[in-house]
Amino acid sequence: MSEIWLIIAGLAAATFTIRVGGVLIGRRLPSEGVWARALNALPGSLIIALVSVSLLSGGPREWLAALVAMITAMLTRNLPLTMLAGIAAIFLLRQM
Amino acid sequence: MTNAQEARSEFLSGAGRILPLAAGAGVYGLAFGLLAAQAGMDGLQVGIMGSAVFAGASQIVAVERFAAGAGALIAIIAGLVLNLRLLLITASIRDIFAGRPFWQIALGAHAATDENWALMMARRASGQKAGYWFLVGSGASLMAVWLIATISGALIAAALPEPRALGMDFAFTAAFIAIARSLWTGRRDLLPWTVSFAVVALSLWSGVFDKSWALILGGVSGAALAGFRRDE
Description:
The complex is a heterodimer. Chain A contains 4 helices and no strands. By secondary structure, chain A is mainly alpha-helical. Chain A folds into 2 domains: 1-30; 43-96, no CATH class. The longest helix of chain A has 26 residues, at 2-27. Chain A starts with a helix and ends with a helix. Chain B has 2 domains: 3-184, no CATH class; 185-232, no CATH class. Chains A and B meet through helix 1, helix 2, helix 3 and helix 4 of A and helix 2, helix 3, helix 4, helix 5 and helix 6 of B.
């Protein structure tokens, strides 16, 4: 099972380097201008990309459930409630 | 409040508020534990992997590749590609690391995941105070849930419900939709977000990029457009 330990060590080292690397790279970038605007916009863009990958890998049921979640999010701005609505919607849609 | 009191209250606030998201991670943790047990890992290995890597999706991908017969190098690369987005995540919160010693940078960076980072950004977008200790507190809470769930999964390794059968595989998508709503600041976000979606769609449909790369390309493209746009 030494290969398992190799995977654990390798992935841990690579992931830690990526995480700390992000902080160090981020610190060397100026606080205004093109880079700053891009970094400020990054969280929203990345969240949208995460949702996009998930929805494009799914089908009409996932899209409908996403719509339910989106409406819940817009009406309530409540995270647990939106999760509950999305899970309930996809569960029911998959029974059909 | 003193600095120590403020740090403590932010730590506790993060540790509590992450729990709904941690519950979703917990369900996946059980599934990961099962997979890991099938790949021949014991509870100790699952625990060490969870605390040292602490990036659920990459752990699942790496162990899945290994169980599928790929070598260690391929398994590591598959997980690593999935984790490249963490570079963007920690770079986007560089302000909370300003002036901190290296051990705190290392601790905070290691605590950063999609879930607690997104929650932190959402808190800030709605005008709440959520800084370094919020990230560390929510990360600690998330790690505790992740370790309990993955080790339990590996030890029980019995007939656990499959996440998909309960609709739990949609938990993260729904959470990210709620978080996107919190991050929305107005019509000026529309174009970068549309570009982000379009680039993900084109990347996936091109057949050239897998999901990990499509995600990174989409996120970077939307941010790049916002950077180069002259609107301020």
